[in-house]
Amino acid sequence: MMRFTQRSFCRIAALSFAICAMTLTSTALHAQERATIYKPAKVPEAAPSTQALLWFRLAKHSTHKWKVDAKIGLGVLIGKVDVEQTEEKEPLKKPLWPSIQIAPFDVAANDFAGKGESKKDVARLMAKAFYIGPKRFVFEDEDFRHYLVAIKPGTYVIGGTSSTCFCWGSKRFTVEAGRAYNMGETYVVTENGLSYWSDYAGLQTAEDLTARGLVTDTMKLEEPKAGETAPSVIGKFDFTPVQYDDAAFFGNHYGRLVNRMIPEGWTQGQPLILNAPETIVEEPAAEAAAGG
Amino acid sequence: MFRKIVWGIACAGLLTSPALAEDDPGKNDYKWFFFHKEGVAEEVFIADYTFCGEYGARVQPPRGHNVYTPGLIQSGVSGFLGGIQRSSQRRQMFRAVMRKCMSMKGYTRFGLTEEEMDTLWDGGWDEAQGRVAARAAEPVTTERRADP
User: Nearest C-alpha of chain B: how many angstroms from A148?
Assistant: First the structure.
């Protein structure tokens, strides 16, 4: 029988300590990689020196829903209920607010950092995508919820919403530590004709897909303008308008439905068009060549 | 008693089955259809279809909550049924992405019958791509234009 000596006790204690230290270090590193979405009471006095501060405005999503007509027949015995959407809208008890996904972006690979084409070059730890909204906002007015987010410097892409990847056309941006950025206004539109914003209410998915819940989201990004003032709760920072660039035809790594953002120059009633991938994919490759 | 329940479910299934429903020629257009863009070159159609298919192939239906099921057999059955449901959802999401993508690339969609669909796709994508591309390019002979 093995004897439990003082020496083995010390070895076990040292091993346990090492495991704990490794876990804590990894957690601390991980926390640094994550974004901080501030609550109103936690808004910092100054921009963190190691992170960039972003001011997002997410526009109200919708205030109504389609009235549905449930036809309960014998099918209910086998769990089948025919639900038909009517032409009538009914108001929601509370308005709906959207959320958007922001993901670290590898420009050279034209993909989410640590995913797909970028997988070989970037550690998975870096690839922490996160959502902004609908909660943890610092301020809400009639049309917008304002969010204040601190993230690690680097390049990010607006990846989509929880149901839709904007893989076919989105925007990317690069931020530096210690600076505060105005990210502009984002209008997330679910293509079901219920947008709060009448300009986008005409965007509608086919009826049979809507009935199956396969409705895509899209988004209009109003880029920030110089001189825009933030609400007083976050107004103490000197927000610089962020520079957006096109990002398109990256991978659908979260298995969502796919769409693109509403492009510049789009007018009401026009369909969203998908350009040939070659025309946009060339851009990041050329930039990478220039940079390297 | 058990026999009565089984008969009840079977009858309910029959009564609500599509076979007894009112005959609507467009009711299966969500799964039997072809894409059309008159005069499209075969290689362009194949490139567009492959591009859209690659995005469609990546879809994954959202995972539901795992329901606790005591016992190995029950969990097996529950997992099997869940798998069937997810696979059907995945097929629907795939079609939704294909339709969105092809419509954004300027294709329209027309409904087919099951027989026409089987003939068009006989032999799978490898054998059928030329046929599907030709069908996309030639003038349409059906009036049943479906939603994009």
Answer: 29
For residue A248, the SS3 value is coil
Chain A residue numbers touching B60 (CB-CB < 8 A): 254-255
Contact B55 A273 (CB under 8 A): no
Provide the shortest C-alpha distance from residue A218 to chain B (in Å). 12
Q: Chain A residue with minimal CA distance to B105?
A: A274
At residue A227 the predicted structure's pLDDT band, cuts being 50, 70 and 90, is confident
Using an 8 Å CB-CB cutoff, list chain A residues near B58: 251-253, 255
The pLDDT tens digits for A80-121 are 667 777 888 999 999 999 999 999 999 999 999 888 888 766
Residue A204 has pLDDT above 80, yes or no: yes
Confidence at A281, pLDDT banded by 50, 70, 90: very low
ipTM for the whole predicted complex goes beyond 0.95? no
Which residues of chain B register pLDDT less than 50?
18-21
Domain boundaries of chain B, sorted by first residue: 26-60+70-146
Among A239, A268, A125, which Cα is nearest to A175's?
A: A239
- Asked if the C-beta of A208 comes within 8 angstroms of chain B's C-beta atoms, the answer is yes
The residue of chain B nearest to residue A250, with distances taken between CA atoms, is B55
What is the average per-residue pLDDT within A277-283? Answer: 43
pLDDT digits (tens, 9 = 90+) for B105-142: 999 999 999 999 999 999 999 999 999 999 999 998 77
Contacts of B121 (CB under 8 A, 6+ apart): B128, B132
A95, A143, A175, A219, A273 from A264: Cα distances, Å: 27, 22, 23, 11, 12
Of the candidates B16, B30, B105, the beta carbon closest to that of A208 is on B30
Of A239, A57, A245, A53, the closest CA to residue A149 belongs to: A53
DSSP state of A138: S
Question: Which among B24, B48, B58, B107 is the top mutation candidate for probing chain A, defined by the most A β-carbons within 10 Å of its own β-carbon?
Answer: B58
Of B9, B97, B106, Cβ closest to residue A258 = B97
Cα separation values, B73 from A36, B65, B76, Å: 45, 19, 5
Distance between CA A62 and CA A189 in Å, rounded? 9
Q: Are B114 and B122 in contact (CB under 8 A)?
A: no
